[in-house]
Amino acid sequence: MLKRCDYPHRVFRYCPVCSASSFGPADGQHEPVKRLLCGSCGFEYFINAAASVMAIIERADGVILLTRRMKEPAAGTLDLPGGFVDPGEPAEAAVVREVQEECGLTVRPVGLAGRTYCNEYRYGGVIYYTLDLVFFCEAVSWEGLHGGDQEETQTVLMPRSLITGESFGLPSVRQAISDYLGNTLR
Fold first, then answer.
1. Are the CB atoms for 49 and 131 separated by under 8 Å?
2. Alpha helices (H) along 19-166
3. Which of 28, 117, 155, 171 is least surrounded, with the fewest CB atoms within 10 Å of its CB?
């Protein structure tokens, strides 16, 4: 059992096709490793970024909807509502689904930020590379808002004036909220 997080090329040691132990980084690669190759059967595995979404939802009174992470990575820190995009799911649908799951709020994406963020998400002994998309959303109604699922997240409503980037545990979210508060995220 893994006790710490590590990069995929250090965790996946056997070929998933033929089970050979000659499975590893292709010759000449430097970190970050992008491709694993089996020396026995020739199978290639590409290490790609996973798509992730986050929502910025600000009420007219300057209060922003946040969440508090209850599990690792970054347990106890603030976060923006969001999560991973499921296979075959458009990012716009993912942000709506994630906000509904985490906060009970039905939102409508009204814009996509003009920049993306990269992160290393450490979970289950493996480091996943993410490509994070930021959506500006508006609440269809604030009536469905609940306190979060308490196992994964807690819902937090915070005035814009009290938010600091240092309160966010994931680097990409910290940078996105800092850019938003600094009016450089459009």
1. yes
2. 91-103
3. 28
Strands 126-141 and 50-57: parallel
pLDDT, tens only, 6-51: 999 889 999 999 999 999 998 777 888 999 999 999 999 999 999 9
Across the chain, mean pLDDT equals 93
Domains (ranges, CATH) in the chain?
Answer: 9-46 (no CATH), 50-181 (3.90.79.10)
CA distance 135 to 51: 13
N-term to C-term CA, the chain: 43
Confidence of residue 184 (pLDDT cuts 50, 70, 90): confident
Distance CA 163, CA 19 (A): 50
- pLDDT of 66 > 60? The answer is yes
Please count the residues of the chain: 186
- In the chain, which ranges are continuous DSSP H helix? 8-11, 91-103, 171-181
Which residue reads 């979210």 in tokens?
173
